[in-house]
Amino acid sequence: MGKCILAMVAACGLAGAAGATTIVREVAIANASFEAQLLGDGSYTNNDITGWHVGGGTNTAGAQNPLPSALPRAPDGRNVAYLNTFQLWNGYTTQGSLWQTLGEQAEAGTRYTLSAQIGRRLDVASLPDFVAELLVDGQAVASGTLFNADVAHGTFATLAFDYLATPAAKGALGIRFTSRYNPVQGKETWQATIDDVRLTAAPGVPEPASWAMMVVGLGLAGAALRRQRAAQAMG
């Protein structure tokens, strides 16, 4: 009887260990809601966002504290980031981008979920094609896209997607956002706003070794129970 109990406890412990891998945690992102800079109502920065790299040229990216006439409410705090796209007089197009390398390495078997709130201003013609990417060692491993029709004027929409890291995914995690020029917009300036960026990590399916240990434990419990019943029948 004692062996049976021990085997069953071991099996339950293994099963519990496998089930405990469902814990979801937040991956640290610097200035994830763009509140690090103190901005007055309606003011903004040009190519300067604390904790982030910006690119694309002058007037293509920054932090802003939008007036209610532009965006009635930011999802988290007062500030948002903005990305512009437009076409210059010579036909050259600019596309704003911002990115950040995180202080955490990709871990195989981990499911990462990247999400952000993407807004469309009331006083700007349209939302450019907007792309979010999860990076490993500077290379995109997963992405999601929102288009103009996905976000109503004066509102935010959630852009989210998952990535299950493979053994080949080695290096630091990173995030990149890009506003992409759409020829339909002509020379008009289109702008996307970003807020409340989040990255979570949760173990994916248990490793094969964990499943094997659990099966062995359950098998031992079953065998011990059968032997105990057989002994009772003979007694």
Task: Give the topology.
Elements: H1 2-19, E1 25-26, E2 53-55, E3 61-64, E4 80-87, E5 93-95, E6 97-105, E7 110-120, E8 129-136, E9 139-146, E10 155-164, E11 172-180, E12 190-203, H2 208-234
Antiparallel strand pairs: 1-12, 2-6, 3-4, 4-5, 4-12, 6-11, 7-10, 7-12, 8-9, 8-11
Helix pairs in contact: 1-2
Summarize the structure.
With 235 residues, the protein is an alpha+beta fold. The protein is built from two helices and twelve strands; from the N terminus they run H-E-E-E-E-E-E-E-E-E-E-E-E-H.
Describe the structure.
The protein has a single domain (25-205), classed as Galactose-binding domain-like (Jelly Rolls). Strands 1, 3, 4, 5, 7, 10 and 12 form a seven-stranded antiparallel β-sheet that branches. Strands 2-6-11-8-9 form a five-stranded antiparallel β-sheet, with no helix packed on it. It has helices at residues 2-19, 208-234; strands at residues 25-26, 53-55, 61-64, 80-87, 93-95, 97-105, 110-120, 129-136, 139-146, 155-164, 172-180, 190-203. The protein is of the alpha+beta class and 235 residues long. Helix content is 19%, strand content 38%. A hairpin with a 5-residue loop joins strand 4 and strand 5.
